[in-house]
Amino acid sequence: MDASILVIEDDAAARELLAGNLRHAGYTVSCASDLGEARARTKETRPDLVLLDRMVAGGHALSYARQLRGDQRTSGIAIIVIGADAPQAHDTVAALESGADDCVCKSVSVSEVLARIRAVMRRSAPQCGDQALEISGLRFDPAARRVTALGRDIELCAIEYRLLHFFMTHPDRILGRSQLLDQVWGDHVCVEERAVDIHVRRLRRALEPSGHAALIETIRGMGYRFRREEVTEVAQRRLLRPVPMPHAAYLGVGDRRRAQRRSTQ
């Protein structure tokens, strides 16, 4: 096991305890006590996974998670946020919406942290076969681990990558949230169904510029459906809307035409 992990924790004792257990499990570990040091670390070497203490000193941890997701170089890094011992639902939602792949409580056992790391790392290297898929100009190439929309690269994190693959291999079917959790996250992972909605929203956001976001349809009370629809039809709805001319312009054109008819009589 040679995956690299960056531990961002401002409490020295907690940081060293976690780092020691990770090294014992076979991971290559680097540490940072604040976000400034973390940025320097990721600039030097890109880790495979970041363990991010939500309360870390030196800045806002969730803003840092968004920065990682927004940078093409670091967008594929897996992120686990370590939160409060008794997190509120909105805290977990905020972490997931900021780009985290998973959240754990600070008081959980080391064995659970290691299990969650293994689960996230499996999702970060999804096995989707080698056959490329293409629907309406949206191309999924697992061999190159590349997604393109109308020829342009689309950057996705590991979860959105697996989610899109499952959608594209099951088109025109209604897929429930529990089914998506089992197939994309895995039945061994304890994640709320709300996480599905968050990642679908992020996937739609990535596909919006090309018009492919409209292919993911929400089925109220049931889940989602990925439609086999020509992207030209999507584009027509988004881009080819009639542009009304000002009323005065119509009057001006009509006046000129009537004047021309009178001049020829």
| Beta strands, count | 12
* Helical content band: 40-55%
The low-pLDDT segments are 238-256
Tally of helical runs: 10
Span from first to last CA?
A: 91 Å
| Beta-strand content bin | 15-25%
CATH level 4 superfamily of the largest domain: Response regulator
CATH architecture of the largest domain: 3-Layer(aba) Sandwich
Which structural category do the helix and sheet elements fall into? alpha/beta
- Quote the average pLDDT: 81
The general outline is globular
- Tally of discrete structural domains: 2
The fold-level CATH name of the largest domain is Rossmann fold
From the alpha-carbon coordinates, what is the Rg to the nearest angstrom? 24 Å
GO cellular component, one term: cytosol
GO biological process, one term: regulation of DNA-templated transcription
DNA-binding region: 130-228
Domain Response regulatory: 4-121
Write the layout of secondary structure elements.
Elements: E1 4-8, H1 12-24, E2 28-32, H2 35-44, E3 49-53, H3 61-70, E4 78-83, H4 89-97, E5 102-105, H5 110-124, E6 133-135, E7 138-141, E8 146-149, E9 152-153, H6 158-169, E10 174-175, H7 177-185, H8 194-207, E11 216-219, E12 223-226, H9 231-239, H10 247-264
Parallel strand pairs: 1-2, 1-3, 3-4, 4-5
Antiparallel strand pairs: 6-7, 7-8, 8-9, 10-12, 11-12
Helix pairs in contact: 6-7, 6-8
